[in-house]
Design goal:
5-stranded parallel sheet; 35% helix; alpha/beta; 19% strand; two-stranded antiparallel ribbon; single chain; Rossmann fold; binds flavin mononucleotide
């Protein structure tokens, strides 16, 4: 199990980067999440980085056999994925839009980390997320312009599933939109994302309880 160094020194950071582009190194979400992770590594020199690529290391679909393994205590991969999230102080998630959703490989990752009694629990007032005190960045890349429109079904889904497991306390989504449009929009969207990363790196404000940078 990976343990967080943050318990020893609150300046140390465990960073988990989830890559999810079918275009690999050429994926804009891959490039922006890597640049964000480098910026955060520079910001917190005492860090440990884990990269989980859900495309190249595809996670099997969550099915009845997975539930059986969880009941038997033999769900090694799901356990490992949960431990990576539990250990992380900062989580960076690449979320490319494919056919109005996120890659099925990414929803499969969520299927494996959403576990009753471990990452969420049902109470008399409804579900409560158990993953607490983490900074989460989502890099949401799209070919078109969807932010604030009915066609953006990605954002409600991600906000809901992240909130379900408690990862919405300090959540920032970096939108990189219009990447397939002609003209200046793609370059402008990427430049804007890079500017946001610079701001995040420079931001000295800390989250009062978690000592992480505040949402900017
Ligand atoms: C299979 C596929 C489906 C796509 N579907 C959509 C879509 O529904 N809406 C959209 O705006 N862009 C869509 N795009 C464009 C991607 O969102 C865009 O290329 C973005 O850069 C993907 O992120 P990535 O570069 O990190 O892979 C699609 C691209 C691919 C390859």
């Amino acid at each position: 199990m990976t343990t967080s160094p943050n318990t020893q020194n609150n300046m140390q950071k465990q960073i988990l980067r989830i890559e999810a582009s079918i275009s690999g190194d050429k994926g804009i979400s891959t490039q922006i999440t890597r640049e964000l992770s480098e910026a955060l590594q520079n910001k917190y020199p005492d860090n440990a980085l884990i990269v989980r690529n859900v495309i190249t290391d595809a996670i099997p679909h969550f099915d009845a056999s997975t539930i059986g393994h969880i009941k038997d205590g033999t769900a090694a991969l799901a356990d490992a994925l949960i431990e990576e999230v539990q250990a992380a102080d900062i989580i960076i998630i690449a979320a490319p839009m494919y056919n109005f959703s996120v890659p099925s490989q990414l929803t499969t990752w969520f299927d494996h980390i959403a576990r009753a009694g471990v990452t969420f629990q049902y109470t008399s007032k409804g579900p409560v997320g158990l993953l607490k005190g983490k900074k989460v960045y989502v890099v949401s890349t799209r070919g078109g312009m969807h932010k604030g429109k009915a066609s953006d079904v990605v954002t409600p889904y991600l906000n809901t599933i992240l909130g379900f497991v408690g990862l919405d306390e300090d959540l920032k989504t970096i939108f990189v939109e219009g990447l397939n449009l002609s003209g200046d929009q793609p370059a402008q969207a990427i430049a804007q994302a890079r500017q946001t990363i610079k701001t995040i790196q420079a931001n000295k404000t800390t989250h009062p309880s978690t000592e992480k940078e505040a949402v900017s």
